[in-house]
Every structure is written in structure tokens, then in C-alpha cells.
Amino acid sequence: MPVFRHRPSITPLLGVTLLCAFTSLTASAMEGMWTLDNLPKATLAQKYGFTPDDAWVNKVMHSAARMASGCSTSFVSAGGLVLTNHHCVDSCLGDLSRPGQDLRRSGFIAQRPEEERQCPGMELNRLEQITDVSAAFAQATAGKTGQAYTEAANATRARLESACVNGQDATVRCDVVTLYQGGARHLYRYHRYQDVRLAFAPEVSIGAFGGDPDNFDFPRYDLDMGLLRVYENGRPAATPEFFPLNPHGPEAGELVITAGNPGSTQRLLTVAQLETLRDVDLPGRLLREAEQRGLLNQYGSEGTEQNRLAQKTLRWIENGFKVQYGQLETLRDAEVMARKRSEEAALRQFAASRPELKDTLGAWDDIARATRVYREIQAHLSYTEGAQGYWTDYYGWARTLVRAAAERSKPSGERLPEFADAALLATQRHLLAPRPVDPAFEKVKLAWSLAQMRQWLGADDPLVRQVLGRQSPQTLASALVDGTTLGDPKVRQALWDGGAAAIAASQDPFIRLALATDAEARALRARHENEVKAVETRAAEQIARVRFARTGTSVYPDATFSLRLSFGEIQGFKKNGQPVAPFTEIGGTFARATGEDPFALPQSWLSAQKALNPAQRFNMVSTNDIIGGNSGSPLINRRGELVGLIFDGNLGSLGGAYWYDEADNRAVSVHAGAILETLDKVYHANRLVSELKAGAVH
Amino acid sequence: MPVFRHRPSITPLLGVTLLCAFTSLTASAMEGMWTLDNLPKATLAQKYGFTPDDAWVNKVMHSAARMASGCSTSFVSAGGLVLTNHHCVDSCLGDLSRPGQDLRRSGFIAQRPEEERQCPGMELNRLEQITDVSAAFAQATAGKTGQAYTEAANATRARLESACVNGQDATVRCDVVTLYQGGARHLYRYHRYQDVRLAFAPEVSIGAFGGDPDNFDFPRYDLDMGLLRVYENGRPAATPEFFPLNPHGPEAGELVITAGNPGSTQRLLTVAQLETLRDVDLPGRLLREAEQRGLLNQYGSEGTEQNRLAQKTLRWIENGFKVQYGQLETLRDAEVMARKRSEEAALRQFAASRPELKDTLGAWDDIARATRVYREIQAHLSYTEGAQGYWTDYYGWARTLVRAAAERSKPSGERLPEFADAALLATQRHLLAPRPVDPAFEKVKLAWSLAQMRQWLGADDPLVRQVLGRQSPQTLASALVDGTTLGDPKVRQALWDGGAAAIAASQDPFIRLALATDAEARALRARHENEVKAVETRAAEQIARVRFARTGTSVYPDATFSLRLSFGEIQGFKKNGQPVAPFTEIGGTFARATGEDPFALPQSWLSAQKALNPAQRFNMVSTNDIIGGNSGSPLINRRGELVGLIFDGNLGSLGGAYWYDEADNRAVSVHAGAILETLDKVYHANRLVSELKAGAVH
């Protein structure tokens, strides 16, 4: 369940019309999250005798889709049926649950079409077209630095995206994506599905069997799947291109391919940037998540309803903690860092040897300087623009409303990017989605995060004094939550519609708080963008030129939550020196079950045990190079048949943010045969089984 | 409240008869935790015209005392009255509290002698004699490594300590202390007070006013004091040597001296050892404490009784977190590490230049290899010998009982050191002290720590499988706590007295658990001692020789929870570029109070506000070089008068574990005048005020 990218910033897909290509220094046979225009064809032909043609590539592109909130999916029927992970529909299950009715716990089956339920705010994007806009950016930002650079880049982005969306067509989404850490920029146009409904999800006890202890591990026994359906004009959308299920699945050693949207890798970062992650960002996030976990576990022990609320959030915190701890271990590994240092030294030496790269020589030091600024502002940035002091949906809504009111009166190109015309719809949908919140739970989270703000900034920090005044975190949190009406989507709608006048007149305490703290948050955001991000991007453009000049045209950019293919094969690995076989079987699930959470099977499985084929393959590992965002990616064979469903990596995959290690790094999938077997024998989901079988390989 | 060394391992004091002296590379004017035989006399004479003679030194030695559990104290009357910090009597207050009667919250005053209450298990040690036993160790361990080295050192230690205690005299305590990370060993004989009673403690709301937010910060307004009294044969002990109180206190710039027991510094460690702290130990402790804090804060919000239990533990966790985070920041500072690297390189270069030091050249690499072994075993070591999976007093008691039964049948020299004859009494007292535990709270902590064990070792780890079986952490924790009778001190006494037969026959589930896991815990402890600690100590002996040859005889050893003097002056500092004055006044307390925890003053202070002199100096900072263990140290002037009570360091002091930075590092004290003023005007503790005034300077 790890390969989910929670709350992504706005980042786009990558597709087929790229012309340029850049290079990194090393690539094992299986390494790479490849753009569709630049597949490792020589390796594929030589190693597997596989030569994908344009038709194959286009079919894959149209059969895959991105979940805007940070997962991957694929179409699995002509009638708009979408396969993804249980953990990708987890927040939808939470949003549709109510006290006394916990859909995460019970699972969900729409036995009839009309029982399919809309997921609040969910959006799917299918890639349609890509345009190289690098030249437009280069022209607009030529000779600019700092604030001027940021403004020019934002304005260019807004202009290109607006033109692409072409008015108010809500079925089109356009995003500019920055590749190679700034080495190229492309404009992506998607078909946008905004009516996405839940058709099936198993109980979380089998969707995430083994819970946090088994997360990122293998052998594994998870039915981490969910089925959605895209609707248009109130009816299931037609999706003539889809991946047919092949229930036989792959064999050991067979070539398997993922078509998904890896969220973010940091393989091209400089050593100074990696050290900043190691010393500042990762420890900070881990300490925060550790304390959140302690709080949520204890809160969840206080009653059934508290447990429902806590578990919904806890799952992501535990997942994030495990990911980041694995990343930190990688960056603490002296050998990994020595390798990064020597790669960087070689690159700098190469640049120094070429007169035409003379202007790039300062790039690494520029980045190092920017990271020092970042280290200096990081704590305050987290608590102003990062809003870490306000762990509650109320504040996020208030911030969006306050900023929208101020930004919407400006020309699109001068707004904060998330309020530019092309992005406004997604921002609005996120704000207005009818997500339930529990005031008592919000008080607990908010009080904790206000105390964190005081802890990390100090009791005498001006922001802390401004926010807390003479109140304790608990007192202030209670006053804010008791006084707000933002939990009601209609109130949010009215404030959105009312604009600046409505915001100015509002007495909602969260609106007042967001207004009062907005100036400092914007100032720090600007400093971060101008003195850190703009410098890093500028310098990364230069480094990309060096890399390109040095190593040619056979490489992939860092992940950007855009469509990538990875090629691997079904293959076991060694754990503590012992070989681990590549497949598990359904029978093993019952052997591992203890009856105690998180190893307790749901009643549906216990009842169906005799009917299930114990030898049916259940989960499997492959050498595909994936990362968070790949959750829900189809695992296909060379014929474009869906043979599995990516849902996790093993522990050895966690360093994948920084480098790919073929010996240890494995992707974990649900076997296609187990999907059909359990939908049929455990859930008796006849309608969905028939629909899947209609397109399936026999 | 930070300068408290919680749960120390057994480490001894350091005193006046040392002959040898070693050196470090740098020393600012104020740097140093000096042994009494090796004071920085030249600096003191030159800078302050102060030349302490033997009588002065002996008086200081006899007027100070160590709290065996990890604090410093001093005698302040001839009748056994002892001054220390509120946070040093905090656990006594907790032990004497019961549901509905929270002495931490209410404070405690014995207005009459017979109201003084014994603190369970508390022990005070006053230094009597020191003997250099380096030669005995050198002879016993000559040519030995690994297990042979460990056994020879343990046997020598047991033999020397036993001979020193001289039979079963319970008023004598003897400890061998290892100085200079192994460069010398000395035997310390103490007078031991085992009947220590509480006379006074203020409410925690003023004892730790400002709570965690203000901890390690300044300006400060804390009455972090407590009064104890040592008894012998049921009557107050006579303590003719004590520090008279000087209520006028010191002036800015005046020389002030601490006489306390700094617990542990790491200033002489090699770079490999510092990197291990930075990469492994500190992050591990911080992540654990962060999650514990989240849990305890939430548990404490569930009710008054839960709050009482949680706060008792939370204070130490918050304190430890702040200390360790400051230490981590220091070790993450590239400049600090560069300086350590260059110091080490210079030392190695010096060793290489001297033929007589040829045998020391491998020492640094030996230590680096030992740290690699440590990194490899650290996780399992923590959960076996470290018992981190069992966050409950029950397990600690069970472990002690199981091991005592096995060890006591061996000759003293072959036992684990904590069970050797000379140490046995302290171990027994700790076990049998009547400390109340709350079963419901123990279940919560234990379940959490069992889940941690599974998280960090993995669900399939042999130890995890052995301990948990098919049970969840919650189920097992409940079964263990419901089944045990170890909460009753009489049961522990019976099992201690019954020895091996009683343990073998016991069906107590904690005894069974401790028995079942003991072999693996002992095996890992042995590996740690033989392959890590023995190697490090051996190599440190060699490095100490190099240091001594290079820099002469003007330096202090790393702190070892033994008596040290530090010399400093009352002096402010700069915080965020702004000057901070060295004193606060009582009036400022009322200005800082908000009425909300942890800035809420107790009713006693609110009632007494008009009577109190607002201009009375309250807290103050000085440049004394202190660290955890110095809590409760007297701050004296050159005439041996008590002018303040050390209770904290500022944020700049947290890096003091690794180096002393005179610009930033400050010790924080309660002013002697504030002690008398508040005992009189707020607490009307007339009896104690009279006693203090009887010896005081007028």
C-alpha cells in the first residue's frame, strides 16, 4: 500500500511526443521509469525479443489513467470500469462512512448499477496530448533570476494552461510538467473525469492484511484492490480501449510492464540537496509522524467511533513513516552517499573540461547556497505556508477561501499558480467536496498541532504569540472548532461565491485566522520560491545540459506523477540472506491469519475458505522500477493484457527515491487470477465478474 | 529541568586524590568539568585572583552529595537538610501520590518534623575517599581482548568494590569509575544515606513554570527546588559541613562555581562514535520519544487520573526529547563535525610521528570497526538486553528477579556487574522500593512497546514470534498485566528471598517471559560487551596515551556522574541576535503567566503576589560548563556560600555533550534569595526557613 502519493502538489503526466532526452550516469537492465517516446528498445529487444510498436504504445496510453489525488488506475472494461488499489479508494470509503457505518471496515459492493456511489471530489485524468513548451519558458525567463524568474515562469504557465483548456471545458485538464529538475517543460492535456463512483472494495482487513507490520514486505497476502467507474452525463462512460484481464497471470522470469504515474524521485538531485533531505526534511517529517501515530493510536483506543476516525488517518501516517524511514536509511548509508559524491564530482569535472559548459560551473554551488537558505527558513516555512500548526481540514478550507478571494480578482498569470484559470476548477472541487469532519476529532488534532508550533518555533515566536495569544493550544482549538461553520459545504460554497466581500465580512474564526496569518505565509512562500526554488531550477537546467552533453540520449527524467512505463520480470529476492519465492498463494493467507488485528481475516473470507482455490496465486514480486504514485498501476504483459495490479514495493524498494538497486528492489502486485477468484467466490460480485470476464483473456 | 540524568547506569564520582591528568585539545576560559585535584588554578588566579586551598576543596567535597538515581544535591544545614531541584524529587512526589491525591500538582510541605516522608528507594552518596586502581586493571587485562578482557575487567571491579565495602556495611558504597574513556580507573568510596525524606516541594506549575516550551530556555521563572533530609537510625543525620545560603546572591560578572555530578559527555569520542550517535542512537531515541509523547498526551486527556499518571512520565520524555534533539542538531552541524575531524586527524598525525606511540595507530580504526558491529546489532540489542519492547515496571522487576536468582549463586567476580556483592544492595533496594503502578496504564504502555518491537524487528523476527505468538500486542499486554502479582512489593521480596527455586516455580507471566527471553538477551549483551565495548575501551586507552603525550596535563576527563567543579561567571548571552540579561525577577513571573497550563501559576502564588518582592532576583544564567546530572548542583561563590541552585541549561548548552561554546552555552539557576523569599512569603515554611537562616550569611 505504500506506492500512493498522498496529497500531491499539482504535477502532470508524461507521454508520447517528447523529442528531447537526457541521461543519467548509471542504469541497470531493469532501472527506469520511461517516458513513452523513449523506451529502452535495444534492451527490450535484446533481452526479451520485445519490440513495442506505436499502436501498442498508444493502446497502453489510452487504457491507463491517473487519479488526480495521487494514484494510478487502468480501464478494465469498455463500460468505464476502473481497477485500482483498495488504498486508493480508502479515502472515498472514509468520506462515504458515517458513525456506526464504517465502509472501510465492512467493504462495499454495488451488486446493481444504481448502487455505485460517487466518491466526493475524486477526479480521473486520461492523457490525450503533449506539447513541448520548453522554448516558451526559456524565452520568458531568459536572464531572469529570483522573483522575476518566478513571476515569468508562473505567468507563462498560466498562459499556456489557459489556452490549452480553451475556455471553460470541464472535461479538459492541462498541466505544465517540469522534467529533469528543470531541464525541460511540457504541456499535458488530459480528458478529465469528474464523476467517479465506487463499485467495489473489500474489507480493509484483507485489503491491507498484515497492516503496518507487513506493509512494504513480502511474502504478502493482500487483496489491495478496488473498482471504480467513470460516469459522464450521469451514465457510465464508454472506454473502448482497456486492458483485458488475463487470469493466468505471468510466470517467473516473464517480462512484465507497469503503466503508471510514479510521483516523485530524487535521483538527479545534487549532494547538497540530498543532504538537506537527510538532515532536515526526512527527520522532521518522521518525528512529526511518530508523534501523530502515538496520538492516533491512543485516540483510536477510546471507542468505536474514535477508532473509525483515527484509523482513516493513521494508515497514511504509518505508510509515510515507513517510506521516509527507508529513505533516511538509504541517505545515511555511507556507500550510497559516496557514490552520489563521486557521480557529482565526475559531472563537474566533465563540465570543467568543456568550454561550452563554462556557464554551468557555478550551478552546484548555487544549489548548495539555496539549500542553506532553505535550512534557515524551513521551520517557519512549515508553520506559515506549510500550515503545519493547523492539523484540521477547517484551516485548509479557510486558507483556500481567503486566497481565492484575493487571487481571483487578479489576471490569471499574476495569481498564485493553484488559482490560475486552468487550475481553479480542481481547487474549487477540492474545497467543495462534501467530506464529513468530526468536530471532537478536529479539536484533538488541532490542539496537538498548535502545541507543535509552539514547541518548534518557541513560546515567544511572533507567529506563536499572534496565533495563541494567552490561550493554551487546547483552549484555542476548542474555540476555533466550536465557532466555525466551515464543516458545511454550503457555507464554503457561499463564501467562494461571495468572494472578497464575503471573506471580509465573515466572522468565522478560521477565516479570521487564515486572514491574520496570510501575509507572513505569503512572504515566506515568496522567499522560498525566489531564493530557493528559482535558484535550484535555474541551476538544474544547467546541470541537465552537462548531463546531456556527457552521456547522450538514453535516459529517463526523475518521476513527476506522469505516465511512465517500467520493464521488469517476475523474480524473487533474498531477505536476510534467504531466498524469497516470487509468488504467494491464497492458501497461505489462512496460515498467516491469527485472528488478531492486523492479521485477522474478515468473516467473508473465513466463510469462503472451502470454496477458494488454495493454490491460486495471490501476490507476486517483480523487478519493475516503481515508486509512490504507482499505486494501482496495471501490471501488463507484452500483449497488453492485465496480469496483475501493483500495490506496493518491498523494503528494498524504499531507497528507490535515490537509486535503483536491482538486487533488492521489488514491486509487489495482486495476481489477476486472485482478483477474479475472490470477486467470484468470496464476494459473489456476479455483475462485476461478468463485466471483467467479458473482456478477459480465456 | 533538563540537567537530570534519568536512570543512570552505575557510574561513580570523582574526587581529590587523582595524580594523573590527561589533556584535550582546546579549552576556552570557562570550559571544563574539573576534578578536584586538578583545578585550573592558573586561569582562576589570573582571571579572578582566586586561589582555592585544600581546606576550601575539602569543604566543598563534604558539603556536596550525589543522588544515586542521577541528580546532584548539597547540604544546607547542620541537621541533614538537603537542597536539590523540584525535578529531582519529582519521582518521589509521584511515588507518594495516589489516585485523588497528586503531590506533583499540590506540592508538599512538612511543617512539622514528623511530617517528612521517606522517598521510596532514594539514596544519597557523599564522597569519602578515592583510590587510583588503574594499575590493578592494567595488570588484570594485559594482553586480553574481547570476552577475556570483559571478564577480567568485571572480576577486577567486583574484587576491588567488595574489598572496599568491607563486608555488609550498608553505609558504605564503592564504585569503580572509568575516566578518559578508559584512560584511567579509580575506586570511589561514599558514605551512603538510604533513608532520605521529603521536606518541601512546590507545585509543579511553578517548579516547572513554562513547562516544555520554556524548558532549556531563558529568560526563565522557575522555582525548581526541593528540600530533602537525610536520616540515620531514624533521626536526622548530623551534617556539620554544609553550604550556608547567601540570599544576596551573585552580581553580574562575578565568579560562580558549581559542585555537582555531570552525568556524561562525549567530548573525547572519535568521529566514528559521534557519527554513530548522530545516525543511529539519537534518531532512534527521538523517534521513540516522539511517539511516546503523542500517546501520553492523548492518554492524559482522558481523565484526571490518567492525567496524573501520564504527566509523571511525560515530563521526562519531553525533557529527553529536547536534549537529544539539541544534540542531534549539534552533530548535524557540518562545522562541528569538521572541527572534530580535524582534531582527530591532528591526533593521529601526532601518534604517527612518535615511535613510542606506534602501538596506538590502529586505535581509531578499531573503534570504527566496533561501531559497525554496534550498528548491526543495535536494533536487536535494544529489544533484548535493552528491553525496549516492555515499557512497564513489571518487566524490569521480573528481569531483575530472574537474573538475581541465576547470578547470586556464582562467585561475585563472575556475576553480571550489577549483581556483584558491592552492587547488590542498590539493585535490591531498587527492586523492592514500594512504587505504585497502575495496571490500566501499564497495559497501554506495554501494548505500545510490544507493537514497537514488532514494527522495528518485523512480524517474522524470531524474538517477536516467541514473545507475541499469535496474539496482538494489546491481547498479550492485557494477559500479562492481568496475570501478574509483581506490583506487590511483598511478592517481589518473596521471590528475591526464594532465589532460583522460587523463580523456577513461579507462574507469574512476567517471570516466565523474562526467563524465556533471557538467553538471547544475555547473548547479545555479551556480544556488545566483547565486540564493541571492550574494543572501544581498549582503543580509548591508547588514544588517551596519545592525548597525554601531546598536550600535557591541564585537562579534565569526560563527565562520569562524579564530583566536578565548573567555574564560570554570571553573564547574559545573545538570542536571535538580541542580548538577554542575566537575571529575571519574581515580578516577571506574573507578567508571563497566562492562567493556562503550562503558564498558569498555582493559587499559592496568586494569593501571595502582594507580599512578594517583585524586584527579588529569581532565575539567572552563568557560563558554567554543566550537563545532565548537574541538576540540583549548588552554585557557590569563592567563599563557599550558596548563591544559587543549578536547574537547567539554555538551548545553547545542548551541544555541550560534544563541545563547550562559551558564546552560547549558559547554565540556569534559581537565585538563593528567591528560595528564601518564596519559602517564607508563599509557603510560610517557617520551620525550614529558620533552619536555612540559622546557617545563612546575613
Automatic annotation (TrEMBL), chains A, B:
Its EC number is 3.4.14.-. Keywords: Aminopeptidase, Hydrolase, Protease, Serine protease, Signal. It comes from Ideonella oryzae. Belongs to the peptidase S46 family. Residues 1-29 form the signal peptide. This is Dipeptidyl-peptidase. Catalyzes the removal of dipeptides from the N-terminus of oligopeptides. It comes from the Bacteria. InterPro entries: Pep_S46, Peptidase_S1_PA, Peptidase_S1_PA_chymotrypsin.
